[in-house]
Amino acid sequence: MSKLISKTCNTNVYVDGFNLYYGAVKDTPYKWLDLATFCQNLFPQKSINKIKYFSARVKASKHDPSAPTRQDYYWRALETIPHLQIIRGHFVRWPRRMPQYPLAYVNRNYN
């Protein structure tokens, strides 16, 4: 029964663009990864409904001034894939301070 359900199940795929790049394709010849084919090969028994690709705009640097241009090329290629949506976020390089949990200033005396 589960095999029948999995073959007819629509699947949404969520891709973290930075983790994909730095964890799988950087320093390899596979930078032009076709995400639709990749997802279909990754989940051969599923019907891929949507692919959501999350990333942020890269900035040019001294050691890689053409990075934004290459990213633009890749994003334009991704936009040709049906059912793929690019969600553009913001990348923060500096550390952010968050409140400690459990919050140190919360009164723990409930009497």
Task: Write up this protein.
The chain contains four helices and three strands; from the N terminus they run H-E-H-H-E-H-E. The chain has helices spanning 2-8, 17-25, 35-42, 67-78, and strands spanning 10-16, 47-56, 84-89. Strand 2 (47-56), helix 4 (67-78) and strand 3 (84-89) form a beta-alpha-beta unit.
In short:
The protein is of the alpha/beta class and 111 residues long.
> Which structural class best describes the helix and strand composition?
alpha/beta
Main sheet makeup: 3 strands, parallel
User: Total helix count?
Assistant: 4
If strands are numbered along the chain, what order do they take across the biggest sheet? 1-2-3
Into how many domains do the coordinates divide? 1
Q: What is the rounded Rg?
A: 20 Å
